[in-house]
Structures are given as C-alpha cells and as structure tokens.
Amino acid sequence: MSSGRRVILTRPSNENQAWASGLQAAGHTVLTWPLIDITTVAHTRQIVSALANLNSYQAVMFVSRNAVNHALAVAAGGLDWSHTRCWVTGPGSRQALTDAGIPTHAIDSPDEAAAQFDTEALWRVVQPQLRTDQAVLILRGSEADQADTSQEGVGRDWLMQQLQAAGVQVQTLAVYQRQCPVWDQARLAQACDAATDGSVWVFSSSQAVANLQKLLPDQDWSSAIALATHARIAQAATQAGFTQLQICKPVLAALIASLESEHEQ
User: Fold this and answer.
1) Helix, strand, or coil here: 265?
2) At what angle do helices 231-240 and 206-215 cross, to 10 degrees?
3) What residues does 203 pair with on adjacent strands?
4) Does the structural domain 39-178 have CATH classification 3.40.50.10090?
5) N or C: the chain end with fewer CB closer than 10 Å?
6) Within 13 Å of residue 190, how many CA atoms lie on the same side as its CB?
7) R_g (Cα) of the chain, nearest Å
8) What are the extents of the domains in the chain?
9) In 3-state terms, what secondary structure has residue 102?
10) Which residues pair with 225 in a beta bridge?
C-alpha cells in the first residue's frame, strides 16, 4: 500500500481504541466519530435480579460488548456459570467476557474462521445443545426505552424466532441504552466534507447509519466510500445512498485488507 487512507470509525467511543491503534500502525489516518452514544439504564435492579438467578437459564446471550460490560458491571458479587452458557456472536464480545472472568469453556460463539459473526452463525453452534426445560435470556440495548429497531435487533429477532420455534422460552432485558449523538456545527461540516473527500466510513451497526442520516438528513452520500461489517449493515448504507461499498468481517485484519483492496481499485 503506497499511502494510507483517511478512515472514520463510527462505533461507540469505548470500542474504537484497538481498531484505531491498528489502523494507525498500518499507515492510515483515523478519525473516531462515534455515531452511537451508550448510556446506562435506570432499571439496574432487574439486571442484578436476572443475573442472581443464572441457574434458571440454560444460556444468556449478550448481544454486544456493551451488553457484556453494562450487565456485568452491576452484577452482585461473583457469578456461577457452571450451569449456564454464555452466547456471543463476535470476538470482541467474547474477549469482553473473558476479560470479565467468564471461563472460556462456558462461552459459545462462532469460530474465528466463520464467514460472518452474526446470529445465524451462532445458531449453528448452539442449536445442538438446546433444551426446552429452561429459558434463554437475551441481554440487549434499547433505543430510548423503545423496541430495538436496528438491524442488529432484526438479527436478534431472528434468533428469538428460531428459539421459540424449537420450543425454548425466551426472555429479553435491556442492559444499556443507545442514543443518537449530538454533533456541533464543526463536526457536521467535517462530515459533509467526508462525503466527497475520499474518506472511508466504517460502519459496524445499522443504527450508526440511521443516526448519520438523522444528523445530516439532506446529505448526498453517493460519492462517499464505506466499509460495512455485515450484509445487513451494507443494506442500510446502500439505502442511505452509499454506492461505493465493501463488506468485511469486524476484525482488524479484515478491515485493513479491505482498505488495501479498496485503495488498489
């Protein structure tokens, strides 16, 4: 690669450091412009109660790294995972679990060589071990205390449907809240410039795409360049007007390879 790209990371602020450091080491200029603000929820007692009754669930699915961090941050004392599985879809969430002290033998997730890190890949892993005598708890985010309408939510809904069709009861609990960030006029002007100056927008959430549209409802994105970490996210970006778009796995090596591939075109 003869020269680096100007890369815009849009993940929540607490998730950008590893990617930013790796991209900078690879010669890219990195801007961290989170398009989702993550806040805590008010009902922490419900989270504490749910985790205190782990043995009543055959598995707890954490939909993201934020779900891991926010749920386990309020857990009362040590948790016994000897009878309950932990489900996650990607390596970031898996690492968050191990960082929190969850034993690796209690964690189910797609193999690192999987084509995609999503609920469909997770389903292939966990389906053979399902039982109908205990529920599965899904710990997720909420959108201003409303139903989850992001594409990630669609994926979770798909998993819920598979579980219910298999006769497994499903319970859900919001453990963090997503909000659209507030950008000042300077950031909004920079974002408009980044729609045409060759910057590469990296989207790992369809909600980030939706929030970008809220912040700049009249912006033309047809000349902008984007990388999306899942086909559902790419679809959202396409609907927003992005036409120069690639899909890559949500891991640093794949992101760097996609940037190099895009640069050579």
Assistant:
1) coil
2) 20
3) 228
4) yes
5) C
6) 12
7) 19
8) 6-36+184-203+213-264, 39-178
9) coil
10) 200, 244
